[in-house]
């Protein structure tokens, strides 16, 4: 299939291209004109006929039957046991192929927490912080979105919800994040990543999955070493790249996941409350967009630096 980047020989496979994350990765690659040669769109489900990328239609393949020797690198945009088994097989068959899995990048909640904590710590020092995070069902893929839709419809029809993707009913409910099987302790991973990104900041995380399709929210409470001034705090946050302040007490001006975060790499900050050496902030962000941007950046690095990325 003809490419709009004829000089590029970089052929990329994306596993889970029909997931919310896979679709966001395609959008990011397209918008930033990252010069992929051939695209191999892979699905673990019954694949769609085609996916749209760079104004062209690209065929979609069943991942289990695909010859990974056709691609130079693999992006894994889906999660779960079936995905993990397939990736293990590919690593065994093609040990030199660069593979980037969704769980290998810095989680969006930690990236966002660190982005807000850094200017506050620089302003008044940091003692500790606590974050309560609500994540969307789209992080579980299209299956998570479909389950929320089906359960919501069923409850309105007086039907008992069936849980398959999530351990319990997710419609009109909150489910604390639990880590089983292959998954690491997610809350501990968030704490470690935030510490690495924000100069050893000590942050405790409590995470739930909520009945949100897309977008996430975080209530962040911070204790500082010195007294905080609200004016200085607002000024520090305004100067930070990737932060959009929405500091207005009018209810319609408070940032929410559905109305502000979608499709943006910014964190939207509102309801800032300062009391001496502590502050409380309300954050909303789009974890799918943030994850997709980070994964697409890795593709760009692979292309720009083939000698160090094994693309030789």
Describe what this molecule looks like in 3D.
- The chain is 34% helix and 24% strand.
- It has 312 residues and is α/β, with parallel strands linked by helices.
- The protein folds into two domains: 12-104, NAD(P)-binding Rossmann-like Domain (Rossmann fold, 3-Layer(aba) Sandwich); 108-136 and 174-287, Dihydrodipicolinate Reductase, domain 2 (2-Layer Sandwich), CATH 3.30.360.
- The strands form two sheets. It has a seven-stranded mixed β-sheet with strand order 8-9-7-10-13-12-11.
- Strand 11 (243-245), helix 7 (257-261) and strand 12 (267-275) form a beta-alpha-beta unit.
- Helix 3 crosses helix 6 (230-238).
- It is globular, with a radius of gyration of 21 Å.
- It starts with 11 loop residues before the first strand and ends with a helix.
- Residues 1-6 and 307-312 have low confidence and may be disordered.
Order of helices and strands: EHEEEEHEHEHEHEEHEHEEHH
Low-confidence stretches: 1-6, 307-312
Strand arrangement, major sheet: 8-9-7-10-13-12-11
- Could you say which overall geometry the principal axes of the C-alpha atoms support? globular
Portion in helices? 25-40%
Q: What is the CATH topology classification name of the largest domain?
A: Dihydrodipicolinate Reductase, domain 2
Q: Give me the number of helical elements.
A: 9
Please tell me how large the radius of gyration is.
21 Å
If you average the pLDDT, what whole number results?
A: 89
Main beta-sheet strand count, sense and barrel state: 7 strands, mixed
CATH architecture of the largest domain: 2-Layer Sandwich
Strand content: 15-25%
């Amino acid at each position: 299939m003809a490419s709009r980047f004829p000089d590029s020989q970089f052929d990329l496979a994306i596993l889970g291209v029909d997931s919310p994350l896979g679709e966001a990765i395609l959008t990011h690659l397209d918008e930033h004109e990252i010069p992929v040669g051939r695209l191999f769109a892979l699905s673990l489900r019954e694949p769609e006929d085609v996916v749209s990328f760079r104004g062209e239609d690209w065929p979609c393949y069943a991942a289990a039957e695909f010859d990974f020797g056709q691609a130079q690198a693999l992006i894994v945009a889906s999660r779960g046991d079936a995905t993990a088994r397939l990736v293990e097989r590919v690593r065994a068959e093609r040990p030199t192929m660069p593979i980037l899995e969704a769980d290998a990048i810095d989680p969006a909640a930690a990236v966002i927490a660190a982005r807000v904590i850094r200017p506050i710590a620089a302003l008044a020092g940091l003692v500790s912080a606590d974050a309560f995070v609500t994540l969307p069902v789209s992080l579980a893929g299209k299956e998570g979105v479909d389950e929320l839709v089906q359960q919501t419809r069923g409850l309105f029809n007086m039907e008992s919800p069936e849980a398959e993707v999530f351990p319990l009913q997710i419609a009109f409910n909150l489910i604390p994040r639990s880590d089983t099987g292959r998954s690491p302790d997610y809350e501990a991973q968030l704490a470690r990543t935030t510490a690495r990104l924000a100069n050893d900041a000590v942050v405790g995380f409590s995470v739930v999955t909520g009945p949100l399709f897309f977008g996430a929210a975080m209530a962040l409470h911070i204790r500082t070493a010195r007294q905080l001034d609200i004016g200085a705090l607002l000024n520090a946050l305004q100067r930070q790249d990737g932060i959009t302040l929405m500091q207005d007490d009018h209810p319609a001006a408070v940032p929410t996941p559905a109305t502000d975060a979608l499709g943006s790499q910014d964190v939207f900050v509102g309801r800032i409350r300062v009391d001496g050496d502590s502050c409380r902030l309300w954050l909303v962000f789009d974890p799918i967009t943030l994850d997709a941007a980070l994964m697409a950046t890795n593709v760009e690095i692979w292309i720009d630096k083939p000698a160090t990325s094994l693309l030789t």
